[in-house]
Amino acid sequence: MYRQRDVDLSSALNKLSWPSNSSKDRCERKFHCQLCSYKAKQKGHLKRHINEIHNPNPFTFFCEQCVGNSFECLNCGRRYRHSTSLVRHIDYECGKLPQFQCPFCSHRTKLQYDLSKHIAERHTDDPYRFNCSLCHFKAKRRNLVKRHLFVVHHLDSA
Q1: What number is the average pLDDT over the span 114-134?
Q2: How far apart are the first and last CA of the chain?
Q3: Domain C2H2-type: where (predicted)?
Q4: Which of 84, 89, 91, 149 can pair with 155 through a Cys bridge, CB separation 3.0 to 4.6 Å?
């Protein structure tokens, strides 16, 4: 079902099951990772965990069943899982020059989000502004600190 290297993600994802729908069960972490002690409240969170933590190369992890359900750009052939992503690609990216100019340097981006990320990482006093509360680890993005907390300190922040 899933292609990957080195880690048997397919068997871990196949063992996922849906919890019951009672109000008591909605608050509990019912989805257990087969590769470590991680527990999640939602199936999608567990899938994201397996992809981000246990897959050494995220570009080799994709669902073969979803490839047929993707949206393809007719200009360049890029595929997207969601139609809104394809619309964004057509409106701002495909065949277009970068239209968002950094006010501090000559860097240009095709998306406003990428420009905001560039400014935060390159033109702030401390681009490593997200800190681990348990050690001296610093990161440019909050999600990297969350991953650090899980991998290094074995804490679940979800």
Answers
A1: 83
A2: 27
A3: 71-98
A4: 149
